[in-house]
Each structure stands twice: as structure tokens, then as C-alpha cells.
Specification:
mainly alpha, Rossmann fold, 2 domains, two-stranded parallel sheet, 5 strands
Length: 256
Amino acid sequence: MSSSGDIDKARFAPSYVLEAFSKCGVRLASKTPVKTASLILDEYEKTILKMREELEDHEVPHPEIDIRMVWQKLLRQLNEAALIEKPTMDDVSRLAIYFETLSNPVYPMPDMHEVVHSIYKRGMPMGIISNAQFYTPIIMNFFLTGLISDFEDVEYFDRYLSIYSYKEKRGKPDIALYKKAAGRCFKHHQVSPEQILYVGNDMLKDIYPAKSMGMTTALFAGDCRSLRLREQLPELKKVKPDYLINRLDQILEIIQ
């Protein structure tokens, strides 16, 4: 699944703000809605930057925020300016989801469903390390089951091995996320790092930290939209994935 929850990858436009507000039933009382939406976008990006800077002050190298807190602050400001009625937390969550799906559309890769089912049936534990937001499990569950729910756990994946950046307040490539996942793998399944196959699409945020932890790595290069080679980075000059795949079903060949 391409870049779900990674707010750095989104592409923003005032029309997305207006459509998201409309879908949520939040009326924007402005005579110049497009201009107001542009101002909302500016404040949205400034708020994200400020919240991350506050986390950096606490020595978090790759800080991550909960996007609901951003929208909650923005909606409160709009309410104080008499541009919208007093919002509820449901408004905040729904607005965040609609804006995400409009500005950063995601889709499942071919064979995802079949590969996940096959690994699950083999009794192999699966986990997730993701630059994610609260809606990432919602989207994943929809792709895997066809159902829409607000469960925080992704079907077929071990909840103890699922590490989400918005919960940890730190994002990839922070090695702390990988240490936590590796520790839980050993604690709950007696699986050591070299026995873990880590699949990712980003050389810096996925392959580099996973290899630093001693994990076996596979770079997924089957989606040009999400593939990040970052060949210009000096720290990646000597970093090579153990496997290079362009189809998800190749994972099944690796774990035979």
C-alpha cells in the first residue's frame, strides 16, 4: 500500500479542503471559500511543522505527530473566527480521513490480499512498522477484508508487532522503532532479527534501519510512485537490500 499516513508525501490543494468539509457536513461560512481554504492549508502545514519542532526540542530525531491534533486546533480556530460551528471529535476524525484520501490516494498492490492470507495460514507472525496515522489501520482493513471499521489492529497482523509512528511520536527511519519491533518479535515469538524478513519501498526509511538491526531486507520496487532509492545520500552508498522484488508474491518464494 503506497504511502498511507505519510503526511510528507501528500499533495495539498484548496479544493481538497472544501470537498473534505462538504463530505463531513461542516459548513464553511466564508464569502471567499477558496481563499479561506488556502489559508487553512497554510495554517495546516505551519501547525504540523510547529508540533514537530516541539518534539525535536525533546530530542526526538524524526518526530511524528497525531494528525487529529492538527485538525482539532484548526477547527477550533475556525470556530473562534465564526467560520464554522463548534466541531466534535467525530468531525475532526472524519475530516482527517477525507482530506487524506483526497490529497494522498492509496491503493493495494497486486497480490497483497493473497500474500497476506498465505503467510497467515502458514502461522508466520506478521508486523508493521509504518509512518502512519490513525486511519492507516482503517484503510488496511478495508483493503484486506472489504469492511470499514475503526479497529486499531490490522486483520492478520500481530498487534504486538505493529508499530505506528503517530503512537510512538517518532517516525522512520528512527532506529528506535525497529529496536522495539525486534524486541517484541523475540519476546512474543522467539524470533531473532536475522530471522525477520523486512519488506519496504524506501532505502532510507526502510532498508537502512532494518539492516542496521540485522534484519533480512527486501526492497519492493514494483510501484514507481512509492519507490524511494535516494541514491544521492552518502549513508546509503554501501547499503544493499538482500532481495529486490517487483511483485509481492515473490515474498512467498523468499520465505519457502
